[in-house]
Amino acid sequence: MKTTILMLLTLWVSLPIPSLWCQSAAPEVYAAAQGVELLQVERGWQVRSLAKGLDTSMPLQGGDVVVKVGGRDTATLGPLSICYLLSEAAIRSLPVTVRRQSREVELRLPGAGAGDGGPTLAEFLQRYGIGAQIVSRKDPPGSFINEILPGGPAAKTGLQKGDELIAVDGQQVSALPLAEAVQLLVTQQPAIAHLRVRREGRVLDVEVQRVPTSQLYGSPRPPLEQVPLQRRGDRAPAFELPDLTGKTHSLDEFRGRWVLLNFWGTWCAPCREEIAYVMNWVKEFGAKLVVLGLDVNDKREELQAFLRELALPYEVLIAGDLHDPVPAAYYVYGVPTNVIVGPDGSVLYVQVGFGPGSPLGFHLRRLIAGTDPQL
Q1: pLDDT tens-place string over residues 13-65
Q2: What is the separation of C-alpha 291 from the centre of its chain, rounded to a whole number of angstroms?
Q3: Over residues 205-220, mean pLDDT
Q4: Rounded distance, CA 119 to CA 125, Å?
Q5: Model-level pTM?
Q6: What Cα–Cα distance (Å) separates residue 146 from each residue in 71, 161, 295?
Q7: Whose CA is closest to 74, among 110, 112, 33, 113?
Q8: More confident position, 355 or 1
Q9: How far apart are CA 12 and CA 49, in angstroms?
């Protein structure tokens, strides 16, 4: 659910952003989440652009300086944490304080699904579900269970990650868009869900008792005040992760070079779309750029099959699930998430989501080439 929401919320606009940085000056630090691109300034984070497709109820305006989110002062925060706080503000309906034309204004960001015909988070928590995340895949085509909440109805019934969803309560889902297939699992009443799934060539009929989604998702995050936030100037969190051969790679081994950390999954449609762009950047920047594809929420055999079909010209490392240490250290709650790390280990750009007109390529050229290219 978190992954789907974040992917759907992010649409990017191709706007050139002036850059005053040259090789002898410190690079400007940017972040982009919830369809908002921000520049790190002395007092906080300044809104530089809003995505074209963004909900018209978004109260932020270009030039606003975000000074507080949920009561947390943003002037001392790095790009990883401002992205995290903006996402939390939308999901938890936290107050966002901005400085606008010499005065402070308190705002609320549109909640998940607000303005696009989907439920707000509060509405979602009043419904009944089975505690499973459903994703759409092209190869093979269909809707598949991607993640199961421990202790939820789906887990207790024995449903497994990778099960293909064929029908819900007798209605075939193969031809349905993902959003409609997911809605079949959510009801206003605690009714039993009659599912037909395909697992390793076998068709299984399963009955699952729906429970209130507030019971499943009501407190998925720790209290905000208990989350350690990245401070301005903090280096990118260190990690060591294996590739499919078992060889371990660390972020530290690439110190002195530009690094793009690309959190992704084979099950994620925007991630697959993004791959073509990443491959072009590998070719464009050559030895100047190291790309590490940090795969999340995939079975090993699924990742192996994907890479047999499409050999990627960069290292792919296994990062586990979204709640595992490395994604958690980078506040990754949805994919794709991209992080540009400078030669000295500084986090210089963070972007949650990807779509046409994404500013990611712009920022790679701005930083690596030290120029102000036009997208």
Answers
A1: 323 333 333 344 689 999 999 889 999 999 999 999 988 766 556 799 999 99
A2: 18
A3: 78
A4: 9
A5: 0.74
A6: 35, 5, 14
A7: 33
A8: 355
A9: 9
Question: Residue 7's closest CA among 351, 350, 357, 336?
Answer: 336
Report CA-CA distances (Å) from 220 to 154, 340, 371.
Answer: 17, 28, 42
Residue 252, both tokens: 């530290």
For tokens 């191709």, name the residue: 14
Cβ contact 74:44 at 8 Å: yes
Phi, psi (degrees; rounded to nearest 5) at 190? -80, 60
Q: What are phi and psi of 159, to 5 degrees?
A: -65, 150
Measure the CA–CA gap between 97 and 169, rounded to whole angstroms.
46
Which of 4-8, 182-186, 262-266, 352-356 has the highest mean predicted lDDT (pLDDT)?
262-266
Spatial contact of 5 and 112, defined as CB atoms under 8 Å apart: yes
Domains of the chain plus CATH, in order, are 131-209 (2.30.42.10), 236-345 (3.40.30.10)
Q: What is the DSSP letter of 105?
A: E
Phi and psi at 258, nearest 5°, equal -75, 135
Total length of the chain: 375
Cα separation, 191 vs 185, in Å, equals 10
Task: Determine how many CB atoms are found less than 10 A away from the CB of residue 362.
Answer: 23
Identify residue 347 by its one-letter amino acid code: V
- In order of 174, 226, 342, the CA distances from 210 in angstroms are 22, 31, 47
Give the number of other Cβ atoms within 10 Å of residue 358's Cβ.
25
Q: How far apart are CA 70 and CA 81, in angstroms?
A: 12
| Helix (H) or strand (E) run with residue 369 in it | none
Could you please report the per-residue DSSP string of 327-343?
HHHTT--SS-EEEEE-T
Distance, CA of 147 to CA of 363 (rounded, Å): 32
Alpha helices in the chain (DSSP H): 2-9, 79-92, 121-125, 153-157, 178-183, 213-217, 269-285, 300-309, 325-329, 360-368
- 2: tokens are 């978190």
pLDDT (tens digit per residue) in 189-205: 888 999 999 999 899 99
